[in-house]
Amino acid sequence: MSRLRLRLSISLDGFVAGSNQSAQHPLGEGGEDLHQWVFPLAAWRKPHGLEGGKTDESTPVLEEELTNSGATIMGRNMFGGHPGPWDRTKPWMGWWGARPPFHHPVFVVTTHPRPPLEMEGGTVFTFVTDGIEQAYDLARRAAKGKDVALAGGANISQQYLNAGLVDEMQLHIVPILLGSGARLFDGVKHLHDLRLVKTVAAPNVTHLKFSRE
Amino acid sequence: MSRLRLRLSISLDGFVAGSNQSAQHPLGEGGEDLHQWVFPLAAWRKPHGLEGGKTDESTPVLEEELTNSGATIMGRNMFGGHPGPWDRTKPWMGWWGARPPFHHPVFVVTTHPRPPLEMEGGTVFTFVTDGIEQAYDLARRAAKGKDVALAGGANISQQYLNAGLVDEMQLHIVPILLGSGARLFDGVKHLHDLRLVKTVAAPNVTHLKFSRE
Question: Which CATH number belongs to the domain containing residue A106 in this structure?
Fold first, then answer.
């Protein structure tokens, strides 16, 4: 059965993005430091069209994330919500470039309707304005029996967690402090039977996998 | 050389105590759930005068904490700051019972001067009113070359972290949400060269050890 799998990098003090998100700092100030563990990995570079890279204890964790994902859900900010100045003769394509790394259908939960956006490499962004449950329905159908990845950010993750819809939560705990920004668990009261099932120690990150059966 | 070693159990959402701390709930509402991993351990029961208990992956982590500690520092709330009604014909002895589990000198950072309190089993509480640096000086001298344990709570830990005085930080990350309470890292901007050096996966807890050399 298709499962909804949340995965996020999170600082030791609980932030999944820094403050003052902008086109220059889409992850907020300091937010890129949350992802330093993943950038050097060959398993990350490949879907981004890059060669080379290393293998370490994080590799199987990342490969497990990428395996069996048939669709992705994200919030509007993660698509690229507030880009600042851009060439308005062209439609805004988000922050992911012409060839996004998803290579499957992506559902963006937003309040702004717009037609689907077909990118190179198999990624199609579909903009969903009827909320998280509709997005999940559409994503599950598009995934055709595979799992649905929930990519964040904080706000959309909170909505899915509070609705009890998350079947798996993979947290990449990065041993840094951001001090301010978007907290993953703000307003989240409980984990709806998500239990810690696996811990992986890796360079500059600790992976905690939660699941419910 | 004597090192200052902070050790705390912390929820997935960053709290080291629940809200509404009281004599009935010294760790705040839900706060006791932060310590469920430690109560069954033989290595915890022994210094508390209890027999039996189990051994698991947390045992060496706890033993390492207890080893080489010659003195402990804590904040006033952790000693037992606001106990509510009690028999005022006797001095308030804190929350730790007649025979506290420390078995060495304990320095309580407080604004209320009072004479030292000698308990059974080798624990002597000394009340320090001149702030964290004086407490550290006194504790280091009392430890006679051994390390000094910093037992919390949140406020005193923040003061030592912000002063850059912490040499080692052992976080026991418990996979639960408390939703509110005292956050360990509130107002803490950076880790002053504390780096993740060891991760231990254990039942119901993940131990992250930070150290600076």
Answer: 3.40.430.10
A122 inside domain: yes
Which of A13, A179, A199 has its CB closest to that of B206? A199
* In the predicted structure, residue B85 carries a pLDDT above the cut 60: no
| Residue A207, domain member (yes or no) | yes
A 8-67 residues inside an 8 A Cβ radius of B: 12-14
pTM of the model: 0.91
* Domain with B45 in it: 4-18+27-82+99-211
Does residue B93 lie within any of the structural domains? no
Q: Could you tell me if A92 lies within 8 Å of chain B, comparing CB atoms?
A: no
A173:B210 CB<8 A: no
DSSP-assigned states of every residue in B164-212: T--SEEEEEEES----SSEETTTT----TT-EEEEEEEETTEEEEEEE-
- pLDDT, one tens digit for every residue, chain A (213 residues): 799 999 999 999 999 999 988 766 778 888 999 999 999 999 999 988 899 999 999 999 999 998 889 999 999 888 875 445 545 566 666 778 888 889 999 999 999 898 999 999 999 999 999 999 999 999 999 999 999 999 989 999 999 999 999 999 999 999 999 999 999 999 999 999 999 999 999 999 999 999 997
Mutation site, B10, B11, B12, B19, interface A, largest A CB count within 10 A: B12
Chain A residue closest to B203 (CA)? Answer: A196
Whether B185 sits inside 8 A of A210 (CB atoms) is no
Omega of the bond leading into B30 within 30 degrees of 0 (cis): no
**Distance to chain A for B159, nearest Cα, Å:** 15
Instruction: Using alpha carbons, list the distances in angstroms from residue A100 to A45, A46, B132.
Output: 12, 12, 51
Classify residue B128: in a domain, yes or no. yes
End-to-end Cα spacing for chain B:
11
DSSP state for residue A38 in the 8-state scheme: T
Residue type, A142: A
